[in-house]
Queue: 2 jobs
Job 1
Amino acid sequence: MKTETNSIKVLIVLPCYNEEESIGKVLSDLSQLKIEGVYLRALPVNDCSKDNTISEIRKHTPYYLDLPVNLGIGGAVQSGFKYAFENNFDIAIQLDGDGQHPANEIKNLIEPILKKESDVVIGSRFITKQGFQSSGLRRTGIKYFKNLNKFLLGISITDSTSGFRALNKKALEIVYDYYPDEYPEPEAIVLYHLNNLKIKEIPVIMLERMGGQSSIRSFGSIYYMMKVTLGIFFIYIRLKLNGKRNTI
Amino acid sequence: MGNVIPYKIQIISIVGSLLFMFFIFRLITKGKLREEYSIVWIFCTIALLLFAIWRDGLDIIAKFLGVYYAPALIFLGAIFAIIVFLVHLSVVNSKQQGQIKQLAQELALLKEKMENKQKEDGKNG
C-alpha cells in the first residue's frame, strides 16, 4: 500500500474458471513482479468455479472478486474492469488465470499507454511468431477474424482472440457500460475502434496453458465462429447507427 | 337431434374458455403471473370466448379477408400470436440475463469492499 501514492496504478484482472492447478503459481509469479513507478495489484475473478479455485486465491491475496453465479469470461473480465474503474486505477490488464499469458511481458504491454501512444494494447503471438502458436484450426479462425476486422474497420489486428490486453481509463469507461459476454475478445476490438480508441498490438511470447480448459472447445468451434461473427456484425451495426453505446 | 350436435362443440368451447380464464385469474391472484404478461392471455381468452359465442363470426371475417377455408384463419392467427409471444419472451429473457449479470457483478464488488474494509478495521481497532 505504501507505494500506491504518486505511482501509476495498474490492476491485473485474472478471470478464473476451474483453475485451481494454475492460479496459485500465476499469482505468486505476479507478486514477485516489480515495475518501477508502478503500483501493481492482482485481482483474480472467480467465475463460480466448481473446484477449489477460490480457496487457492484466498491463500495468495486479499483482493479478489467472487461471482455468485457463472457469468462467462466476458462478465468476469468486465467485473474486474468495473473494479479498476471504481477504484481509480490508471490501467487494467487482462491476464488469463491458466498461465498462458507471460507476466514478464506486462511492462511492455503497458508501455504504449504510459507513453500515451494508445488506449488499448493487445499482446499478439503472431507478430514475431514465437512461442505457443495454437492449433492449425484455431489459427485459421484467427485469420478469418483478422480479415473480418480489416473489412469492417480497416485495421489489421493479427491476434484478435488474444485476451492479454491493457486498457487505459478512457477504455475502461467504455467497457464499464458494455462488454460482450461470451467470447468477448474479437467483438471488443470493434467496440474499441468505433469508440475512437487507439489500438496497438505488441509481440508477446505465449505459453501453453498449465491447467484448466480453454473457453473454446473443439466441438463448439463452429458455434464460436457463428456467435462471434454475429456479435461483430451486430455491435458494428449498432454503434454505426446509434453512434452511442447501448447497455443490455 | 340434428340441432344438438353443433351446440355441443359451442358449449365445450365456452366452458373451455371460461376455465382457461379462471386459471389465468387464479395465477394472477396467487402472484404466480405478473400482470404485464397476463394481459396477452386475457385478450386471448376474450377472443376465444367471443368466437365460441358468435358462431358465424369466423365465417364472416374469413369471407371479408378472402380466406377460402375459414378454419385456416384460426391457425394463421394462432401461429402468428404464438410467434409474437415467443419473441416477446426471448426479449424478456435477454433483459433479465443482463440484469442478473449486473446484480452478480455489483454483489461481487460489494463483497470485496466489505471484506477488505473489515480487515482494515480489525487492524486499526
Job 2
Amino acid sequence: MTAITLDFHSVVDLTDEQFSKLCQTNPDIKLERTAKGELIVMPPTGWGTGNRNGRLTQQLFNWADADSTGIAFDSSTGFKLPNGADRSPDAAWVRQERIDALNPDPDKFLPLAPDFVVELMSATDNLKTTQAKMQEYRDNGVRLGWLIDPKTQQVEIYRQGQDVEVVRMLEASAKPSPSTLSGEDVLPEFVLVLKDIF
Amino acid sequence: MTAIALDLTSVVDLTDEQFSKLCQTNPDIKLERTAKGELIVMPPTGGETGDRNSEINFQLRAWNKQNLLGKVFDSSTGFKLPNGADRSPDASWVKLERWQALTPAQRQKFPPLAPDFVVELRSASDEIKPLQNKMQEYRDNGVRLGWLIDPQNQQVEIYRQGQDVEVVRMLEASAKRSPSTLSGEDVLPGFVLNLQDIC
C-alpha cells in the first residue's frame, strides 16, 4: 500500500527511544524515518505482497541457516543506518562478525547497514521512492541490493561502486529453467528462485 | 485511499499549535486527530473521489450563495470538535450566526465548533466502519445533519440529532424518472443535492 511521508521534525524531533516506542505502540503499521527526520508511514500490505515476501524470506532464511556465516532478518526489523535514517528492508542479511563486533541490544534497532537487502514492490508502491531508498542503502554501505518488481517482471541490482543493473525476468522465464537471482560474492551460493515471487 | 491511525500519545502529546503546524508542513496529506489523540493520516484521494467531492462542494456553495445563511467549507478545513478531536469533513456548512460569534483568531485557526452540516464521501478503498464512527462522533458533538455518501453501494446514510440513522438506497430512487436527490431538510432550507454526478 502507499507509503506516506510525514514531515514531523518541524514540530517535534523524536529521539531514537521515542521512535522505537512509536513503532512498538503501532505494531500494525510499518514505520521508517528518513535521514532528515521525516516519518514514513506504511499500512499493512495486501495478501499477495505478504505471501511473496514470505516466500522470499523463506528462501533467504533456508540459505542463511545452511551457510551459517551471518544472520537473516525479516521485514519487521529496523536498521539505524550510518546517515541516521531508520529503515526496514523487506528482507536483509548481515555477516555474523559485524554483529559480534557491535554486540548490539537485540531489543533495539540494529545500528548498521545490512550487507544485503531486498525491497519487494507492491502494486501501489512508488518506483521512484523505492529506487531512492535502494540508493540510500548503497550509499550507506549495503554491498548487494535487489529491488524486485513483480508488476514489471524486473529486478534492479544495486552494487557498491557500480551502476544499477536492470534484469528483465520475462526473457529468463521464457527458458525452461525458472528465473533466478544469484547472491554473488555477498551471499555465496545463494540462488533466489523467482517462480513464486513474480 | 486508506486512512492510517497512528497512536502518538505514548511518545508525544501534540499541542493544538503543533498539530496545526504539522498540517501546514504536510500540505499534501490530510490529517485528523481523534479525541484520544491518535493521528489519522490520509493520502491524497484518487481522481474519481476528488471529482465527486468537488461536485458536492460546488452544489452546496451555489445554494449558499443565493441564501447567504452560512459558510461553506471544503475538505481542507479542520474543525476542533467539542470532544477535542480535530476533523475535516469532505464538505461542511456552519450557520452564519455561529460563524460570526467566533473571534477572528478562532476563524483563522481550526474553528472550535462542530459544523451544522457535514458530508463524508466514501472512496473505493475507505472502510465503512471508521466512517460510520466518524459520523456518529459528528452527531454526538452536535452536528444537526450528516450525510455519509457511499457511491460504491449506491446508498446514503443520514444522521440526525436524536434519531436512528436512516439508510437511503439510491438505486430505487434512480429507477424513477427524476434524478436521485437529497434534501437539506430544515438545516439547509431549500438545498437539494443532485446525486446524478456523485453516486
